[in-house]
Amino acid sequence: MKLNIQQLGRRMSLSACWAIAAACFTVPVFAQSASATLLTPENKQKIELAVWRYAIDTPLLMETIDWFRELTRHSRESAAIAELSRLEFMQAQLELDKNRRVQQFEKCIAIADQALVLNANDVRGLFWRAAAMGKMAEDSGIVNALRMLRPMEKMLLKVVALDEKYENAGAHRALGRMYHKLPGFPISFGSNQKALMHLKRAHELFPRDVITRAFYAELLYDEGKRDEARKHADFVLATPIADEDALEYAEYVNIALAVIEKTGGSQVKLGRF
User: Fold this and answer.
1) How distant, in Å, are the alpha carbons of 6, 212, 253, 269 from that of 89?
2) Cis link prior to 186 (omega < 30° from 0)?
3) What are the DSSP calls for 45-94, one per residue?
4) Where are the alpha helices (DSSP H) in 95-225?
5) Rounded Cα–Cα distance for residues 232 and 249 (Å)
6) What CA–CA distance (Å, rounded) separates 63 from 171?
7) Predicted TM-score of the model (pTM)
8) Which residue in 59, 118, 57 sits closest to 85, CA to CA?
9) 48-79, pLDDT tens digit by residue?
10) Which helix (H) or strand (E) holds 6?
11) How far is CA 165 from the centre of its chain?
């Protein structure tokens, strides 16, 4: 689950395309097939463990992908197929070769599309499709990034409308980051006002979410709200981070450290489990 700035008249962050991480489940909007759901409590637990440990236990992730791919082979359950897209997303993030990484994110998108054909309102499918597009934008250059931005925005806004709490308010968080980092009109559709709205809401829903607090801290600092920004940045550094989360959270810790450096430094030590 687990961020770059290209030149376009002014510098534009491709990380704004990035759509975020963590694990959470929702009830499908549409009824699934008549057969029992594949997302039983036991199966959910297996998926969650693989997602949580993806960065430090690749064999477990691959074993889980193989198992769930076979389980969903003939399924018409959109939520289950979208969960396979989520697992494939984790695998793609571990790929170091750029071309192979792009191909794997394309695979993730194709699987999410299968879920969305069955249910156009599947929150998981929408979210992980947008997430994969954001990651591809980072690797694909400015032209492809611009082409993907509006569709990503549309999907994330739909996730907000259907289930704003999914992925720890991941759609709010991603939209806030995107609006903050994109240039405004006429170059693009960035807007700090919209960014504040979404990140404030994400913080209201999940006040202890480290990713939201890091993004919110940087935005508040850019808005001249130094004291508020510092409060959120201090929270990020003081939050214990498990080994399983270290890779994913490194970027957010760096964002918080930058805010702290710009607001006078700190003696706060990084939290670790």
Assistant:
1) 24, 20, 22, 32
2) yes
3) HHHHHHHHTTTT-HHHHHHHHHHHHHHTTT---HHHHHHHHHHHHHHHHH
4) 98-118, 123-140, 142-163, 166-181, 192-205, 210-222
5) 15
6) 29
7) 0.83
8) 118
9) 999 999 999 999 999 999 999 999 999 999 99
10) strand 5-8
11) 13
